[in-house]
Amino acid sequence: MAKNRASEITAYRPCVGVMLINKDGLVWIGRRFEKQNDDGVGKWWQMPQGGIDDGEDAAQTALRELAEETNVTSAEVIAEAPGWFTYDLPENLIGKSWNGKYRGQKQKWFACRFLGEDSEINLKPPGHKQEFDLWKWATMDEVLDLVVPFKKDVYVEVIKALRHLGK
What we know:
The chain has 167 residues and is α+β, with helices and mostly antiparallel strands. It has a single domain, classed as Nucleoside Triphosphate Pyrophosphohydrolase, CATH 3.90.79. The chain has 4 helices and 10 strands; from the N terminus they run H-E-E-E-E-E-E-H-E-E-E-E-H-H. The strands form 3 sheets. Strands 1, 6, 7, 8 and 9 form a 5-stranded mixed beta sheet that branches. The chain starts with a helix and ends in a 5-residue tail after the last helix. The mean pLDDT is 88.
């Protein structure tokens, strides 16, 4: 009987997540337009996140990823959620995402205060692949209602750890 390649992949990609909070205590969330799931294209909402490069400081990674995905540079790290959070990709994506090397992600989450104006946000930042086609400010509970299902457990824990910083 042939083994399922997805069941053999056990590594988690080291990554950061960013909860960007504005002056009103709302959280930035974007829609991943190129992803498709059972609900169709454009149903995957998430906060900015991305891989940690070898030797890179996680907090600096958070600010770099935020800039690469949203063009936001007017932000400062205000908190770090304790520990690491992991999630598995859906079975149909294991072995396909990240060159097939990882079954999911191991994430360190940071809260950042947005110090700029909404006009700074650009979903097509120069020199970087576009990740999102829509964005909005949302309450933390709204974020939980919108997030892609396979990441929801992580988001519940992240929001539990950082809820005191926003709405």
